[in-house]
Amino acid sequence: MINSRRSFLCSLGLGTAAGLLWPIRGSSRPITFEPGTYGDLDGVIRLNSNENAYGPSPKVAETIASVVAGANRYPRMQYGLLREHIAASHRIKPEQVILGCGSTEVLRMAVFAFLGSGKRVIHAVPTFEAIGQYANAAGSEPIGVHLTSGFAHDLGGMLSRIDANTGLIYICNPNNPTASLTHRKDLEEFIQRVPTSVPAVIDEAYHHYAGQSGMYSSFIDHPIEDDRIIVTRTFSKVYGLAGLRIGYAVASPKIARQMQKFGTDDNINAIATSTAVVALDDVAGTSEAVQRNANDRQEFFNQAMARALKPIDSHANFVMMNTYHPAAQVVEHFRVNNILIGPVFPSMETHIRVSLGTRDEIAAFWRTWDMIPWSKNIGHH
To answer: Which H/E stretch holds residue 353?
Structure first.
């Protein structure tokens, strides 16, 4: 039985921030989010899931508090408003927007819309694992193509694997787990050479951290009018809403209709639906989160290079670097010292992926790194 406001909020997945988010009658104190030092697990620092360690902006946190009272209502009447808001922010039509319980559900929709028994999905190795897992569940075959030596997608190699059984292509850009970019111009040329019957999912979960440049720009903000392009986004990263589970995709109306057939009814909760609208409008909060991440990322690189480590150039909120030792041993070293970092990726078995945490959390990471017996000799591998 839920017998308090705090336990009610915890049951909604708001965790330790719940007491800080509940509006206090008669108080003019601004509502802010103060992330717990160690997240949900007592004594454990979580640098393993590429979350925003600082949580949502004050404006978004205040919205979460204000909409909790409506948690007893189904949110379906709000979906149209959210769709329209996303469409307006990208200057597209509402019928091009597909909503999902996190962008992972949108990936599942794409898999079940375009794959099936005997079909294949082509993806990079390594990349975000969900696409391969969903493909296996659909009875399809994942076809992995290794990244280039510069950690970009091997687009030529991916093209060479396309055949009559190819139903989908998956490109995560910036890529997870490497945080690397594939050049926008190369992607445009690649799409033009893909058969018109094969959709390509471009996963832009880390879009905000990549910045705009000649090398990178979003396929939403600079759209190609093509049924082959599906772009996915999430509110889990820069907006700090991973626990609320909300994401979306943008595609042509035809492709959107095909994918929506495989969505779950009432798949976005009432708190997430209302909060996402405010998050999209909170330009100042988003800019602050991006700048803070850039500062933390630079400090991580400074500390790494001071230890003769050279991480892969990162365009996200995590860093991947070569330890020149079995990654499984490094991951275990951090685990026994109450720090979780990313899993071992079979194609990069000496690399570790570290999500950017708060300043205190990353300081703890480096203290724990310095405890590794061979860490002082890393430059002599």
So the answer is: strand 351-355
pLDDT tens digits for 251-265? 999 999 999 999 988
Identify whether the C-beta of residue 187 lies closer than 8 Å to the C-beta of residue 271. no
Residue with tokens 């049951």: 11
Rounded Cα–Cα distance for residues 222 and 252 (Å): 14
| Pairing verdict, β 247-250 and 200-203 | unpaired
How far is it, in rounded angstroms, from Cα 190 to Cα 53? Answer: 35
State the sign of the Cα–Cα–Cα–Cα dihedral 187, 192, 198, 199.
positive
Confidence of residue 318 (pLDDT cuts 50, 70, 90): very high
**What average pLDDT does the structure give for the chain?**
89
**Domains with residue ranges and CATH for the chain:** 76-281 (3.40.640.10), 285-375 (3.90.1150.10)
CA distance between the termini of the chain: 57
pTM, full prediction = 0.88
| Average pLDDT for 213-238 | 91
The whole-angstrom separation of Cα 359 and Cα 275 is 27
Q: What is the pLDDT of residue 17?
A: 35
The total number of residues written for the chain in this structure = 381
Measured torsion, CA atoms of residues 186, 192, 196, 199, in degrees rounded to the nearest 10: 20
